[in-house]
């Protein structure tokens, strides 16, 4: 009986508090909160009856906002004397069909905030460049024609045990990879080359990410700096992903291909993860030899193009993403694209062979954004 009387008395107090706030100068969000959240009503009633000179500052410091029946608290800076511009939100609930909006484009439906330097669409439909003059936050290789032509396949003769083991592992993986992609230099077409390249790039983007992630975690555990390795490894992973995104503009793989990629990625990711924990040097040697094979692959592809075996690519327009990434120009050809990708792979091979000779705590000898390596 006492509990029932207390409940009735509490609800009466809430209604009285709501009426007090409604008659005061409190904002609409405060009134809505008082009605929807009775537990806060007594305190908000006092807030609503606060002196007019004090209320703006109190409201600025502790302003509850109702969105879909839940209370999100927004704290302001009470020590500031200048007025703070409030974000305008619609009073209707989302459940009633009206969503919260803002003057900022980041809150518009379907709008994605661009990365630094990406092209954005203005209101009139024209492209605008962001203030930050950096189109890609990581490595963006831009080569001269003389350099890309000078890149040729190279091979580091394995002498140490880990080098021989890594080279043998690449040999086995290469034959398995050749079988999956139906690789035969005597009968390669544009479609077969794309199948091989796409599969290659889905695998090649794994080592840099795994190595960078493990070194990142080690840096967190040891609370020490990484000496610059993480950034270079993530650059490698990002660069390989850009290769994949570029060639995807030329062909979209089917269901079976995607299933094979999923399977191979699951196996390779976990195997490389365990191997890198055991021996990072072995893993970098493996990637160095793997990238040597990639340079050979793109060299054979360029040779087929020069011999006229790939007629579709002789007049094929280079995807826009490639022109932006490698700064190839409007008149770039597929040959220019293949030369640039081959130069990237040569860079990765050189970097990983170098890392394989360094101790884990040694400083990264490569400058940020390095992509030109010795070709002699």
Question: Please, what is the average pLDDT?
Answer: 74
Residue windows where pLDDT falls under 50 for at least 5 positions: 1-6, 24-48, 50-134
Order of helices and strands: HHHHEEEEHHHHHHHHHH
SS-derived structural category = mainly alpha
Q: What is the number of strand segments? A: 4
Task: Give the helix level as a range of percent.
Answer: 55-70%
Strand content: under 5%
Number of helices: 14
- Based on CA atoms alone, the radius of gyration comes out at 30 Å
Describe, in plain words, how this protein is organized in 3D.
This protein has 376 residues and is mainly alpha-helical. The protein has helices at 2-23, 28-36, 41-48, 55-61, 145-150, 161-180, 190-204, 206-222, 229-247, 255-278, 280-306, 311-314, 320-326, 334-355, and strands at 62-67, 70-75, 119-121, 127-129. The strands form two sheets. A two-stranded antiparallel sheet has the order 1-2. It has a two-stranded antiparallel sheet with strand order 3-4. β3 and β4 (127-129) form a beta hairpin. The longest helix has 27 residues, at 280-306. The radius of gyration is 30 Å and the shape is globular. The chain starts with a helix and ends in a 21-residue tail after the last helix. Residues 1-6, 24-48 and 50-134 have low confidence and may be disordered.
